[in-house]
Amino acid sequence: MSAAGVEWVKSSYSGNNGDCVEVATLPGGGRALRDSKTPDGPALAFGTTEFDAFVRGVAGGGFRRA
């Protein structure tokens, strides 16, 4: 999956402190996530099913900071 040429959107939960997560819809329906501080850096790419599972995991508290 390539995230080249996609439109990135900042999360509505991101504050004004620069620690932002951005998401893009990939061709074919997947999603990509990146850190807005490093737009030319790596992005995580997910298929539709994987992204849905990731979002459910986040919403369910499965990725809490230690």
Automatic annotation (TrEMBL):
It comes from the Bacteria. This is DUF397 domain-containing protein. Residues 7-58 form the DUF397 domain. It holds the Pfam family DUF397. InterPro entries: DUF397. The lineage of its organism: Bacteria, Bacillati, Actinomycetota, Actinomycetes, Kitasatosporales.
